[in-house]
Structures are given as C-alpha cells and as structure tokens.
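Folding Query — how this chain folds
Tokens — whole-number codes for backbone shape
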Amino acid sequence: MHTALLNSCLAAAALVAFALSLISGPAPISPVEALGGLTGSASEATNLIMRELRLPRAVLTLACGAGLAMAGAALQGLLRNPLAAPDLLGTGNAAAFGAVIILALGLAGTGSLLMPASAIIAALIALALLLVIAGNDPRPLTVILAGLALSTFAGALVALTLNLAPNDYLALEIAFWLLGSFADRSFAHVAVAAPCIALGMTLMLWQRPLLAALTLGEETARSLGVDTRGRRLALLIGVAAIVGGQVAVSGVIGFIGLIVPHLIRPFAGARPDMLLIPSALAGAALLTLADVGIRSLPTVNELKIGVATALVGAPFFFLLVARERRRRDVG
C-alpha cells in the first residue's frame, strides 16, 4: 500500500479512536454534549468530566500508544530481530523499578519529573546491558534470553521494593500502579509524559538513516559512512525516554511495541525506517481502542489496561515464536 494512503487511513483510525475515547465512560455523554463539554458550553459537571478526566486520558492513550509502537518498530530494526520490543527486552520492568523507587521514597508528586527521570535512566541502563550481554549476536534466542534475564532481575528488584515497603497501603498502591492504567489521569500527567515521548519519537525519526543502513548489515552501514555507534546510542536514548515517560504516568503496559509493527509490516513493507510512522499511528489507535474497550466492560472495578494488553499480547507472542521456529526448521 502507498505510504501516504496508509498513513492517512491510520491517522483517521486514530482520530476515530480519540473521539470514541471522549464519549466512553461510566457517565453517558452524547457526542453533542461531549463537544459542548470541551468548549465549555455544557453543564458544569459535563465540562469537568470532559476537560479534567476524558480529554487528558484520551491524549495520554494516543501518545503512549504511538510511542510504544514506534519504539518496538525501532528496536526490531536496530536489533534485526522480529521479537524485539521494549517490554520483552527488560526495558519495561527496568523503567518500572526506576519509578517504583521514587514512589517508595514518597517523592512522586503529580507534576514531578523525578519519576520519569528515574524510569528513563533505569530503562537506558537495561538497554545498554542488553547490548553488552547479547553482543553482536542478533539471533532471536540470544536476544530473548538476555532480555528475559534483565526483565526477571528488574522484576525481582520491584518485588524487593514492595516487600520492603514501610506500610501495606504503599505496597498496595505500588502493586495496583504496576498493573497499568490511564484512569484518573490529568493534564499534569500529560505534561510529564508528553515531552518524554515527543523527545523519544524525535530521536528515533532522526535515526531513520541508521535503520535503513542496517538492513544491509553492520559492516556495510559503516562503509557507507553511517556513525552506527553514535546513532545507536541516540536511538536507545529515544526508546528509554518513551518507555520511561509512559511508565511514569500509567504503569507497565506491555506488548504494544511487539504487536503493532507486525500488524503493519504487511502493508508498510519490511524496511524498518519506513515502519516508524505507520506503527506510531496504528499504536495510538490500538491502545486508545483498547482503553475504550475496557471502559465498556460491565465490571465493578475497571480492568487495568496493562492486564488487557498482556492477555492479548501473550498469545500473539507465542504465535510469533512458533512462526520463527517454522522458518528456522524450513531454512
């Protein structure tokens, strides 16, 4: 499919998902009332719901979905591994540990930059360790095992922090936050996450020449004059910024970075540099629609978005592993 047409269709899908997010929720609000609430011409209650609850939530789901999907596409291109994704490589759990430390110390104010900063640093350390452990071996098994080791270690550190929490209330708050949710988020949360995600996406788009060159191999890319080391570092900083910003405001949300590039690749092609923008648009639409879906379920307590993406993403991951195994057996 032509890139411009694909991007236009995906952008339209993201806008539809955004509109659905604005009219979805426990309080029934019609599209006309929702528009009035956004412009301030509806009732005081409707204005409050639309401006203070639904609008920031819709903005966050779009931004986080776009960032995570682009990060997954970039990592798959960088590592030349179809199973690469921020959460599967330990980045998500590492960022969660960085944020949990700030929560446990009581330093996590709504507008504080300490949580995203700590989460970004932890995510960047995890990615650096992954490159050291996996080395130059791009085989799926090597990368998955290295990522699994990092994810398990970071998860153990999170569990240790929970175990050492000074009171049960704090431990429960951290545990529920880790499940991932956009409920009750405000524009203060948007102000924290949006700059991190925007920075990360900008860095990854800036590194599209690296992703294009790596399709020819590491040595060929260097022979073409591409600064693979410096560009790789910038790309990893971008991934860490996205994951850290997202985790800081909504907890751990997995599998978006894994699923979306695979769904888009048949339409956008295999070139990773051409996959970034379509993946971002599709990720924004998918995560927003998932959030709309969980708000539509007739449950007493709202299902956590991190739980929903894991329930869908885990079977998809198994299918990818099986497909890679069949390819290896045929080869």
